Amino acid sequence: MRNKLLKRIAVCAMAAIIGISNPAGILTGGTQSITAEAASKPKMDKVEVCVLSSYKNQPTNQVYITFSKLSSTNVTVKNLKSSNKKVVTVGKPSVSSYVKSLSIPLTFKKAGSAYISFDLKIGKKTYSYKKKVSAVKYTNPMKSFKIGKTEFASRYKKYAGPVILNKALSGKLKIVPNKNWKIIFMDKMTLGEGSSKVKNNTKIVLKRPSVLTVVLQNKKTGAVSSIALQIH
């Protein structure tokens, strides 16, 4: 589950950079029913803390309540509401018949917390849910971000990216997180070569075109920021 979450974060970060909506292929329209068999109360996936306005010119104010292992027939979402619409509003639930999942989009208007409540009707059974969700303002998660002798940390003061360079880059990658932040995932994606994991304090080569994604998490709030460095 952790690896799937991190992969989705990296994919969503990449999609935010190039302007692709629905990057993970989870939302497929307005229907609220899928075909399978219900065994027990569906388990809700972990809901991310929303980090507001992470990407320049690409507002990131949405997270999703998801059920990625839904196995039920005639699933209907009822009584869906937010306890504080000034903080967060709810969108229309959507499903993917391919991966048998359900997603409910949440749109944050400002930093804060609220409770999202709803019922899932599965066949003749109805299950109730109530989930606290939160959003925080973006802050730079890195004290230092160097590749070779070039320091990039200050360029992420207001946004998580993308920082765009028009030339290839290579050198030792050294990232020092700010207080209460930790690196949880790093990935390099190069056109024609695919993606590969990256380690801190090791040499890195960024060819043209490629994207380096660094995912950091705040130990106190749980907020996750995906830092992007793009080579054109």
Strand content: over 45%
Question: What about the largest sheet?
Answer: 5 strands, mixed
Secondary structural class: mainly beta
Based on the structure, what is the oligomeric state of the protein chains?
single chain
Separation of the first and last Cα atoms: 32 Å
Task: Explain what you see.
With 232 residues, the protein is mainly beta. Helix content is 7%, strand content 48%. The protein has one helix and 17 strands. The protein has one helix spanning 2-18, and strands spanning 50-52, 62-67, 75-82, 88-90, 94-96, 101-108, 112-122, 125-137, 142-147, 150-151, 163-165, 169-177, 181-190, 194-197, 202-206, 210-218, 224-231. The strands form four sheets. It has a five-stranded mixed beta sheet with strand order 11-17-16-13-14, covered by helices on one side. A four-stranded mixed beta sheet has the order 1-8-7-3, with no helix packed on it. The longest helix has 17 residues, at 2-18. The model is unreliable at 15-38 (pLDDT under 50).
Could you give a quick summary of the protein structure above?
The chain has one helix spanning about 1-20, and strands spanning about 50, 60-65, 75-80, 90, 95, 100-110, 110-120, 125-135, 140-145, 150, 165, 170-175, 180-190, 195, 200-205, 210-220, 225-230.
